[in-house]
Amino acid sequence: MNPKTTAIVKATFTVTVWGGSFIATKVALRDISPITLVWVRFAIGVAILAAAVGLRGQLRLPRLKDLGYFSLLGFLGIAFHQWLQSTGLVTSKATTTAWIVATIPVITALLGWAALKEKLGWEKALGIGLAAVGVLLVVSDGNLAGLVSGGAWRAGDFLILLSAPNWAVFSVLSRRGLREHPAAWMMLYVMLLGWLMTSSLLIAGPGLSEIGRINLDGWLAVGFLGIFCSGLAYIFWYDALQVLSASQTAAFVYLEPLVAVAIAALVLNEPVTWSSLVGGAIILLGVWRVQAGKE
To answer: How far apart are CA 254 and CA 6, in angstroms?
Structure first.
């Protein structure tokens, strides 16, 4: 295959497994607590990334001055972000989580406007408004009045909502490092440092005792999360970014929540509701307007 076709295959693979990650997390959480899941998942992910970096001949230690920067990214993108999502998924639906996560480009644009004084044209402002309406429709299951009374909120929805701007901050802060370092090599150390942070939480909390409680379905879910979602997907996604344009890669992101809805219906029996489909469509329309809009 030519480089562009290979990149398209890798990007499609990545968004497919990331779409399935929310469902796999729900399955694994039947056996273990969120912090144990995050620790085991990223222990596997670090091993996969280390092997890939070694095979590419890029394995080397980071400079001392990079450790603080990588540690910050590891906290935001691995330890804190994955704790938010895993804990949120204890009560939040997988489909709700996927649609909220799809708003990250919108939140990134908002952060650029608020913190970096980037221009925000009317098209982007319209997209942000549409995405917000879509999120409210999805989170409330169509009961917008229940949002005011509080009856439509799940506890996990708040954590998932917080995870979206957190990942947007992580993405913005990662840009400088990705311009200076090979993507897989940098992600190896970001993931390693983030995993070490979760190790302290594991020791202070449940320890390793929960690992023995994982059944076959749980291990299949954890293996999928560690090998595919935390290992191969990161490598393939950054490989694709080096070949495809920003607009081309953005198109693949739209597939992720659609994959999640389909798999959640098949594996978790989560109903495909009108509010999820209509709200999700409004979210994707808003994201498209933000990415396509002029400043």
So the answer is: 19
